[in-house]
Amino acid sequence: MVIFALLVWLNEGTLDLIGNPIQGWKTALIFLVSGAITGGVTGKALDFYCERKEQRLFDIERKREEQEKLRRDRIQNEVFEKRRQDRERQERVDQQRKEQAEKEALERIRIKREIALEEERSWYEEHPEEAYGEWHDDE
Length: 139
Fold this sequence. Notes:
With 139 residues, this protein is mainly α. The chain has one domain (2-8, 22-124). The protein is 86% helix and 0% strand. The chain is built from three helices and no strands. The protein is rod-shaped and about 155 Å long. The termini are far apart.
């Protein structure tokens, strides 16, 4: 609006000043009003354009935040899943070790029994009269 006022003031001599000076000011007023209208329309157009751009930026930011959230959730799920798998793997290893220890303990017991039976058998072979003394009748 200031620019139009300056243009009118600078071109005041060439404006249509037919008749009295008031009629010339009507021309100037028309320029000023048309400038104000043009400025208002331009301002509204820029507001509309900027609002659309701003909305687009908001949409882009919202999408970026959603993608970032999805990425964080995916990473968190991967970490959780990896820990769960590690825990299950460790439980399986512990279970296998426990089973192996039980098998080894049972094997040691079996070997001790076999050794004891072998010693008992060899003692009976070495001392047959003592082994069957109570139950054996010499009739």
